[in-house]
From TrEMBL:
Residues 133-272 form the Gal80p-like C-terminal domain. This is Gfo/Idh/MocA family oxidoreductase. Keywords: Oxidoreductase. It comes from Nocardia albiluteola. Residues 4-125 form the Gfo/Idh/MocA-like oxidoreductase N-terminal domain.
């Protein structure tokens, strides 16, 4: 079948998430071909088109969405600017892959989800942690009864961003809570989505947030920044099936940034573990799956990576797996990837986290829409 033609909004040729993850992911998958790019400046758009082999270069996202040589629009710019490119793509009848978060605010995300639901296009939100092979395999083993009845889940995820009081210039904007890209938004969204994917949706949320590092310095310039985005998230919850869950997300960890998701059951346990996270968190870490049963010791369990033979790093690999699932949906008419409605569900979950932290009590969660 002909490749799905992709136009990328935010395809900077020298920096950013598109060049780190989307470009190599798409170039590795025969189901896709990059045909158009858009950046904020004509010269960078032309250079991106040259580097990535695209026929069309734009500075106007609407023009890219209306390009006849584009079937799918990838939106990879900052979250507060997602809405208008998505509207343009929907109006043009194009499929959409939008990076997480869907937008900067839940109300805007809900409006976009309603608009998307009224179309026949496929739409995906970039919650790619659930496509990490270790998480996919853990979910399968849970469904097959490896751990027996689920008893509890415990999550710890720490990353080194801001460690030592400095932050790289590219990440400085994330320290402003209005950016939609802070630890709660990015790390919280990816991690809590993966946890719900494994053990079930939360029925309620009790959370605390803290800013333990109120000042930071931009490494390249020495400029000081007042931090308004939390660097600590503590959460306890029960799933709709009664499974207790505890979560601690920790930014600015000066040593041993890592993730461990431990799932306990009546017959055994599973653990999803990472090495050092670097700046990324769960969705950008190399993960291993460990298992233990019948009182035995932990042992590594093999996963089943459909892209094992494809030379992609961790950042691009999980994005590529989501793209591969989206291609299958487009080809077959199925809906398996996290779509805009699911993105709204995660936005509302994070709203519940913030509300609980603000009022100091448990916040019940409304029944969610069915998701893949």
């Amino acid at each position: 079948m002909d490749p799905i033609r992709v136009g990328i909004i935010g395809a900077s040729p020298d920096r950013g998430w598109a060049v780190r993850a989307h470009i190599p992911a798409l170039q590795a998958l025969p189901d896709f071909r990059i045909t158009a790019v858009a950046t904020s400046r004509p010269e960078s758009a032309r250079e991106a088109a040259r580097l990535f082999g695209a026929e069309h270069a734009y500075t106007d996202p609407r023009a890219l969405a209306e390009e006849p040589d584009v079937d799918l629009v990838a939106v990879t710019i900052k979250a507060p600017a997602h809405a208008e490119p998505i509207r343009s793509a929907l109006a043009a009848g194009k499929h959409i892959y939008c990076e997480w978060p869907l937008t900067g605010h839940t109300a805007a995300a809900a409006e976009l989800a309603e608009l998307a639901a009224a179309t026949t296009v496929h739409h995906a939100v970039g919650l790619q942690a659930r496509y990490a092979p270790a998480i996919v395999r853990a979910r399968q083993l849970i469904s097959e009864g490896y751990v027996g009845q689920l008893i509890s889940a415990t999550v710890y995820s720490a990353r080194g961003l801001r460690a030592g009081g400095t932050v790289p210039a590219w990440a400085a904007y994330t320290l402003d809570h209005r950016s939609g890209a802070g630890m709660v938004d990015i790390g919280g969204g990816h991690t809590l989505d993966a946890v719900e994917y494994l053990v079930g949706e939360f029925a309620d949320v009790s959370a605390r947030l803290a800013i333990r590092h109120p000042r930071a310095v931009v490494a390249e310039t020495g400029a000081g920044i007042e931090v308004t985005s939390p660097d600590q998230l503590l959460l306890s919850a029960f799933t709709r099936g009664g499974v207790p869950v505890s979560v601690h997300l920790h930014d600015a960890k000066v040593t041993d940034g890592r993730t461990r998701i431990e799932i306990s059951g009546t017959a055994g346990d599973l653990a999803i573990v990472s090495g050092e996270n670097g700046p990324g968190g769960l969705q950008m870490s190399e993960l291993r799956l460990l298992g233990a049963r019948d009182g035995g010791a932990w042992a590594e369990l093999p996963d089943r990576d459909p892209l094992a033979s494809t030379p992609l790093d961790i950042e691009a690999g999980n994005v590529a797996r989501l793209y591969a699932a989206l291609a299958q949906d487009i080809r077959s008419g199925t809906t398996t990837v996290p779509d805009f409605a699911h993105g709204v569900h995660v936005h509302r979950l994070l709203d519940a986290v913030r509300a609980s932290a603000e009022i100091g009590t448990t916040v019940p969660r409304p029944t969610a829409q069915p998701t893949a």
